[in-house]
Each structure stands twice: as C-alpha cells, then as structure tokens.
Design brief:
By secondary structure, the protein is of the alpha+beta class. 27% of the residues lie in helices and 21% in strands.
Length: 596
C-alpha cells in the first residue's frame, strides 16, 4: 500500500501524490492554486480576518500588510535543516544528515493529521521564466495561506506548470506544514521543526516553521539545496548570488554576479545608485543566480525568482533609496515595527525613532530599552516589477553573460577593500575560504566570525568540497570565464568606525572591476591576489584621512598568516574530498609566509 514515506512523487505522478498527502495529513479540503490576482486578494482578506496580517495605512502604503510571527519562528533553523542523501559522505561535514528512510519515517509521523481543520493548498510554480532553458518546475503543498501569498510574489505561480508536469517534465515535489492542526493562532507553528531535503528523489519536506526560507520552499530549498544537486548533475551552477547590470557612461553593459552572506548588502548592491556621474545600475536579481554555459562559450545567468525577500533593518534612503521606493506599495512586511498611524518602521530606517511605536511582538515600544522595535531579521516581500531599477529585460529566458563574479562578507580587518584573483582556481579558493561576521539572518551569535564558503554554507545541497570541485571543473571546459574578485565594504579603523563609506560609493570598486575586465588599469601583485592602485579607485573626493586611505588596501603578514592557518584548519575538515587545486592554492600562499 502506498504511503508518503515509501513512494517517489515523480514515479506515482502529481495527482496520486497530492491525494496521498491529503489523506495522510487529514486536510479538511484541497485547493489547487491558479496564481491569479483574485486568488491572492481572497487569501489576503482571509489572513486579515484571522489576524495573521494587519492592513497598513493604505494612503501611505497601498496594498501592503504586516505579519508578526511567533517569537520562536524568526529565522532559518540551520541545525534542523537536513540533507538526506543516500550516503552520508555526499552531504559532507557542513550539513546535518539523516538517512532518507529514517527521516521520512520520523517526519511522516509528524505530518500525520497535521492539516486537520486546515486547508491544503497545492501551488504550481516555475523558478525562472517558464520557457527558459534554465527554468525548473516545482509544486509546494502547504497548509499556510501566508506561504501561498508569499509564493505568489516570489515565484511564478502558473497552472501551466501542472500541465507540463503531467506531460512528463521534471519537477521538485515539496511538502510544508506549520504543524498546528485545528489551531486558531494568528501565527501557527510547532516547536518541533525540520526542513529536510532528499536530493536523489527531488523532494523537500518542511515541518513546524511558517517563516521565510523554511516555508517558502521555492527559495533556498529548491533554488539552492536541491538546485545545487541538479546543477552538479546537469553541468550548471545554482548560486546564492545577486545579478546586476553596470552601464558605463559610454553605454557599454557589464553583467556581474556577487555572493554575500545574508544581511551583508546583496540587495543594496543589486539596487545601487552609483555616486559616479554617467554610471548606471540595473537590477536583475538580488539573491539567487542560476548560471550555465551557453553556445558562445560564456557563463550566462538568470534570476529564478520573481520578487525580493529582503532584510528590512538597515534599509534606508541612504543605504538603499531604490528599495525604499519599491517598498512603497504591494509589499508584505514581517516582524517590523508599526507606527501610530499604521505605517512600518525598523532600526536604521530613520535617525529619529517615531513616537508611539508598536514593536514586532505587538507590544508598546519603550525607547531606550535593549530590545529592538523590529526584529533584526525582519523581512519584506515585494514583487520584482516594483523595483525602480529593474532591467526591462530582467526575465530574459536566455539570461545574461557574466563579465565578473564577486565574493564578499563582513570583515572588520585583515581583508582589503578589493582583491582580484590570480586565476580561476585562485578565485575558487577565495570563495571557498570566505568568512563573515555573523548576522541575525540565521541562528547563532551575531558578530562571531564563521566560514561561509561562496555564501553557500547553509544552502549547498551536497558535500561542499565536491561543490568546489564542480566549480573548478569549469576551467577544463572551452569557456571564456569571468574574472573573480573579493570585496570587503566593512573595514573598521582603530576607532571602530567604518573606513569605506559604502552604499553608492561602492560604484568606485565596480568601476575598477570594469577597468580590469577591459585591461585598462594595473594591479599590485600580492600573496592575497591583485590589489588596486589607490589612485585608480578615484577616492580623492571622499575626503578620507591618510590613515584610512592606506587601511583600505592594507594587509599584514601576521593577520594574513593567522587567516591562512584558520583556512587550513577549515579545509582540513573535508579530508579526501578536498580538491587538489585548492590544496595547491593554499600551499602557495603558506609557502610565501614561510619564506618571508
């Protein structure tokens, strides 16, 4: 007899799989979603009636709403996010693992009756334009209306996906439940949480959380964890990267992808308003890039998403005026504060704290207390069409040929403002050795340094060392590969103040990258890679002190030596899976310090 833990959804077919899940979860009714505006509006009205969404001041922020989650359900739960590959080694040392049969048995018990008293929604979605050669299809079953409306924004919810699946196209099957049968809570969830990925059978099972990437299963779960598995198998790359277009004063277009850990400025960079006259940025995507070789021998990228799911705190007219304009309408906010006149607020939005705030927990905010008004990981969900800088052709099914790839993260010291890799393998080494000071986007101690290779630590769906090997393999193909760079906007001086002004001034670093792509500027070769000449960064008008100017590109033997020792220890965790090329790159740099 078929049950959800013993079948492959792709083998039994969409309709039988949906029937089995409905039967197992004891859902009151099943709705097959159509992605229409009527469906969205109806669900929004239901969520407002339940108290899950609060309608904001419609004159100030039309068609926008606020959700407040349970305080236990505010971020990714990485220690409960499993890669359930058939072989443990395939998950690698960075991913929690459990045998697929064991995990399915455990979760099948949790799912049994989990949707009693609730509606089960079946969401057909395409990641990427539906006719793109890089598009992939998915179906999410969920008992959360909040998830359905967010999926409307973040993916392309299209009934045509059902037709294509029934006609034999490949798909990813995902199941989600908040785990709160018969609950009338405004934010139903369960203290028991699991987000489990089954790469061999292209499935995701998520239980207990209604928050963000734990519940919107097209996002990190399919696009990155299952996506990276598919990409390795099929010869492409699924990456935690923005995609932007930089246009020179002469009208020449350059396409750049960039990987930063969550809450480290990806969205700000994707929507940059350059400080340099004549330069322009157009946004293609702010979080995920699917990258594949094309017939021209170039790597081309698409943004598989349909909206922006960004961190609100720190977003302001100074840091990201484009995002502030985008958020003026048709946006869902989660865990931000609310003003006395029904608008939203978060730390960093304005210098002054408004009077009469209600905090993210629904309590009166008291100025001066330690707890913030908005949760540090408060979010917005907004459609891509609302972004003022969105490229007119942002959803071109063929994607965009990449000229440069950037890695970055938060480092107070030790990593210069910008460095160019010596080669493709050195660039992969840069990505593999990335570390960043922890932010509130994931559970853990904020400010603590952690290794986050390629900003994929929580998102790689297989052994991270094999993932690096997959990247290295592109150098063996007959391709014109993009140049690779590393940036660090977060250097602090002896007074613990940021040295680099960042935000719109980051255009100066991007202009220098374009200069390197075109062969127009020189580099100073160091054991870290190629560093700019200060004059080529055009920083004279920034009025930095001489000390701060020098600190932008400073590196010391002692600091870099300690960093390399930490990298050596980290890479050692991967044992025999570590690609030889990365061991060679490390040894080259260690040898320099041994000699000097």
């Amino acid at each position: 007899m078929n049950d959800i833990k013993s079948v492959s959804p792709q083998q039994i077919g969409l309709d039988e799989w949906v029937r089995l899940v409905a039967e197992h979860t004891k859902a009151d009714r099943v709705i097959w979603c159509d992605g229409s505006q009527k469906e969205y509006d109806s669900l929004i009205a239901d969520l407002v009636a339940k108290g899950t969404l609060i309608k904001l001041n419609q004159e100030k922020r039309p068609d926008s709403y606020l959700a407040r989650t349970d305080p236990s359900d505010v971020a990714r739960v990485e220690e409960r996010t499993f890669i359930c590959s058939a072989n443990r080694e395939d998950a690698g040392p960075t991913n929690p693992w459990m045998a697929p049969d064991q995990m399915k048995s455990l979760m099948a018990e949790l799912f049994e009756g989990a949707m009693q008293g609730r509606t089960m929604y079946v969401i057909p979605f395409s990641m990427g334009p539906i006719d793109s050669p890089l598009a992939r299809y998915g179906v999410e079953i969920t008992d959360s209306e909040y998830v359905v409306v967010n999926m409307h924004i973040m993916t392309r919810v299209l009934p045509e996906v059902f037709n294509r699946i029934r006609n034999g196209n490949g798909w990813v099957a995902t199941i989600h439940s908040v785990g709160a049968p018969n609950s009338d809570a405004t934010w139903p969830c369960n203290k028991e949480k699991y987000i489990s990925h089954f790469p061999e059978t292209l499935e995701v099972w998520s239980f207990g959380s209604g928050y963000g990437g734990n519940a919107l299963l097209g996002k990190k779960c399919m696009s990155l964890r299952i996506g990276s598995h598919l990409a390795r198998k099929e010869g492409w790359l699924a990456e935690h990267m923005l995609i932007m277009r930089l246009i020179s004063p002469e009208g020449k277009r350059y396409h750049i992808s960039a990987a930063f850990p969550s809450a480290c400025g990806k969205t700000n960079l994707a929507m940059l308003k350059p400080s340099l006259d004549g330069w322009k940025v157009e946004t293609i995507g702010d979080d995920i890039a699917w990258i594949s070789p094309n017939a021209n021998g170039r790597l081309r990228a698409i943004n598989p998403e349909n909206g922006f799911f960004g961190v609100a705190p720190g977003t302001s007219e100074k840091s990201n005026p484009v995002a502030m304009q985008m958020l003026a309408k048709e946006t869902l906010f989660t865990n931000v504060a609310m003003t006395s006149d029904g608008d939203v607020w978060w730390e960093g939005m304005t210098r002054e704290i408004p009077e009469g705030l209600t905090d993210w927990r629904g309590e009166k905010y008291q100025a001066g207390r330690a707890l913030p008004a908005a949760h540090p990981n408060a979010r917005f969900t907004s459609p891509a069409r609302n972004c003022p800088t969105i490229a007119a052709d942002w959803d071109d099914p063929e994607g965009f040929e990449l000229d440069a790839i950037i890695f970055g993260g938060r480092r107070s010291s030790g990593i210069p403002l910008i460095t160019e890799s010596e080669s493709w393998s050195h660039g992969v080494f840069m990505g593999a050795s990335m570390a960043s000071e922890q932010t509130a986007a994931a559970e853990g101690t904020v400010g603590e340094l952690r290794r986050d290779p390629f900003a994929m630590l929580p998102f790689c769906g297989y052994n991270m060392a094999d993932y690096w090997g997959h990247w290295l393999g592109f150098s063996d193909k007959d391709l014109k590969l993009p140049k690779i760079f590393r940036v660090n906007w977060f250097l602090k001086n002896s007074e613990s103040k940021f040295v680099w002004p960042g935000f719109s001034e980051n255009a100066r670093a991007l202009k220098w990258i374009v200069g390197r792509v075109e062969g127009q500027v020189e580099i100073k070769r160091t054991p870290l890679g190629g560093l700019p000449l200060l004059a080529d960064l055009g920083i004279a008008e920034l009025n930095l002190s001489e000390e701060d100017e020098a600190y932008l590109l400073h590196w010391s033997k002692s600091e870099v030596g300690k960093e390399l020792e930490a990298v050596q220890e980290y890479l050692g965790k991967f044992g025999d899976h570590l690609p030889e090329e990365l061991a060679i790159e490390l040894e080259k740099r260690l040898a320099f310090f041994d000699k000097n």
